[in-house]
Amino acid sequence: MTKKEKRSNLILFIVGLIVFIIFIFPLYWMIVTALKSQVEIFQIPTPLFPENLTWEPFKQQLSASGDTLRGFKNSLIISVGATGISTVLAIPAAYGLARFKFRFRKGLILFFLMTQMLPSTLILTSLYIMFSELGLLNTYLAPILADATLGIPFSIIILRTYFISIPKELDEAAKIDGCNSVTSFFKVMLPIAKPGVIVAAVFSFVYAWGDLIYGITFITNPDMRPITSSIYNYVQQYQTLWNSTMAFGIVAILPVILIFIFMQKYIVSGLTNGAVKA
Amino acid sequence: MMKKKKIMPAGTKAGILFALPAAIYMLIFVGYPTIQNFILSFKHVDVFTFSNPDKQSFVGFQNYVELFTGSSILAAAIKNTLIFTVSSIFFQFFIGFGLALLFSKKFKGSSFFRGVTMISWLLPVTVAGLLFKFMFASKGGIINQLFVQLNLMEQPLEWLLDPKLAMTAIVVANIWIGIPFNMMLLITGLTTIPEEIYESSKLDGANKIQTLFRITIPMIKPAIMSVLTLGFVYTFKVFDLVWVMTKGGPINATELVSTYAYRLSFEEFQFSKGAAAANILFLILFAVGLFYIRLINDEEEAM
Predict the structure, then answer these.
(1) Given an 8 Å threshold on Cβ–Cβ distance, is A146 in contact with B37?
(2) Segments of chain A scoring below 50 in pLDDT
């Protein structure tokens, strides 16, 4: 490396670091606030780092009310359910749309693309009526069924690009070995498309976990609310209890952070393949 | 040859069979409600007639007419949604593009910085909204404190309670959430440009700005178009962020079409009017969506 290159490298690093610090500040602020006392939060000027670290807000959130953990459990049930439905339906659909030519293929792809762009408010009222007639309001099934509609189109689009990229010869080889299209799908295609399946599942989970509108509309029973809905209701009640709210928020983002830490490369590939290529 | 002819029709059937369950699911839970919503918007359904289909009468375009006449909140909501969307996308795009140029360079820490930046996009919007609600709070909010300490403001502002300022606050929050999406898609675009093109333009004596406008931007035009149209669609239908931060207030200053439709249906229980408002949102998105799909088709045909 020449001297000039070293210097420009250092400048880039410093610029990158500054941008990074500014961008990540809100997250830092959330954590710091969760560790402050209410007194320190409203102190002027409020300290950038808590002077008396307190775990009180977390303790409160995790024990007394029970809202947090219950919401966490409810969200887990709903998100896992929605992810299950979405992945199970999307894998074969993506395979069919990638591997076979049939009359309505292009129309179906367009249909899935369009459903991804629809606003939730458009279907919300009719879904509400439908679920109320089926007696599904205030059951986990209502948000599960609705959240799966967020994951399915995205998963199909992502997985289709994976299946397209698998060489056709593999299909034919499997056929020569006596596989029909169903067995070759399970024995040959699925194992190769595994990274795509993980991407699809991760995104379906993240979508379902982040949902607010279906959660607050279909579930009014406080015991069954998903975590986004219970934190929203918590804030309505305890307007300025910011340290507890932020502690609640940290619990609510935990699964997403874990997914991010362990599956970063899948997320990057999902984000880019899902949007640009389609 | 004979064998192939036999396989093709079987394959055709298999293709449909594979795709059918997902298609049926989406038809039941998205297609059918969309049509129902359309029908609902031409009826009069409120809290009294909600559970009694026999008493729901068709009223033609009355819901739509009511939405647009008088001191129309919907008209204001459409205007707000456009302001919200255009200003969000403008800043998301330019900041995202800047970050893409920066973080696509290889230097110490670049991939780490780039990676962690993505977190804001993954967070549940509800939590991000509350976080920004707190940061913009008039008491205890860090943004007021910062501006006062830097002498940019004399006293704290009521960001979320002042109709003139609330829009700024929700736009800032939305920009923060959307930057990673713009950045990642643009970085992917940037990595498709072969290094040799930059080298030869350097040999031709092009400076950095010329390279940016003559080479980089034209080369990643498809990625730019994707980011902008998709960004438009995703931003135009934002609901949770605004519902959590301002609930459309103060005095409808941040009312978007999505929050207004929700309010009509689930706070005022004017279900058919809410359905009509949601249809307006749909029509606008549909137009942009068609544009995006044409874009993708052109791209696929070019490949």
Answers:
(1) no
(2) 276-278
A89 at B interface, C-beta within 8 A: yes
CA gap B45, B41 in Å, rounded: 9
HEC states along A39-89?
HHHHCCCCCCCCCCCCCHHHHHHHCCCCHHHHHHHHHHHHHHHHHHHHHHH
- Is any Cβ of chain B less than 8 angstroms from the Cβ of A107? no
What pLDDT is recorded for position A37? 84
CB-closest option in B21, B181, B271 to A92? B21
Q: Looking at beta carbons, which residues of chain A come within 8 Å of B230?
A: 275
- Ramachandran angles phi, psi of B151, nearest 5°: 65, 25
pLDDT, residue B301, reads 58
- Give residue for tokens 């249909």: A111
Which residue has 């035009």 as its token pair? B221
Number of C-beta neighbours around residue B214 at 10 A: 12
The string of pLDDT tens digits covering residues B75-107 is 999 999 999 999 999 999 999 999 999 998 888
Could you tell me if A110 lies within 8 Å of chain B, comparing CB atoms?
yes
Task: Determine, for residues B12 and A102 on separate chains, whether the beta-carbon distance falls below 8 Å.
Answer: yes
- What is the 8-class DSSP label of residue B55? G
3-state secondary structure of A111: helix
Strand B43-44 and strand B57-58: the pairing is antiparallel
Q: For each successive 10 residues of chain B (303 residues), what is the average pLDDT? A: 42 80 95 94 83 77 88 91 95 94 87 87 93 91 88 84 93 95 88 84 84 87 86 91 92 93 92 93 87 73 53
Class of residue B174 by CB neighbours under 10 A (exposed 0-12, middle 13-18, buried 19+)? buried
What tokens does A230 get?
């219970």
Ordered structural domains, chain B, with CATH = 84-103+180-303 (1.10.3720.10)
With beta carbons less than 8 A apart as the criterion, state whether A27 and B134 touch. no
- Domains belonging to chain A, first-starting first, are 57-277 (1.10.3720.10)
Q: What is the pLDDT of residue B174?
A: 96
pLDDT of res. B173: 96
Q: Which of B37, B226, B266 sits opposite A122 (nearest CB)?
A: B37
